[in-house]
Amino acid sequence: MAMEFEIEESEIIRGVYIITPNKFSDLRGDIWTAFTQELLGDLAQGLRFKHDKFINSHFNVLRGIHGDEKTWKLVTCVYGEVRQVAVDCRKDSPTYLKWQSWDISPADQKLILLPPNMGNAHYVRSKEAVYYYKLAYDGEYLDAPNQFTYAWNDERIGVDWGVSNPVLSERDILVMRQK
Q: In the prediction, which pLDDT does 146 show?
């Protein structure tokens, strides 16, 4: 199986890339490659990815909108179905606070590469979902206290989540109350 990808830049947010992997399926199931340094490393300006995270969430969980000024994120859903959202949080960008969404599942597999200062969020549409992050950054990782957070329902952004009462973290509830 060739490790190939279809790569396209977002038509809405410059610097966000949608990557569709070459998937091989047979009676045993599917196999696909999420990343190779040779084929995808240059998209993240040569940075080396340092660590991976998996998040297991239940139906109606909404995580985000979070980000920081230095981390590249390669994200996808490996089990279940999520609505992935990217928000341009670069204050000097002509698309500041514009957003784009993708429905991602094993049946419609894609990876989204998000540059620094991009808000990242996802909403779980299936009974359960496993969400995958691959992170690249210089220096130490900036965890939650050093990240920015926008309310999931921030009217300036206006994301159409298709839901009105998602399950949120304390962090996301707090930022929602502060707006």
A: 87
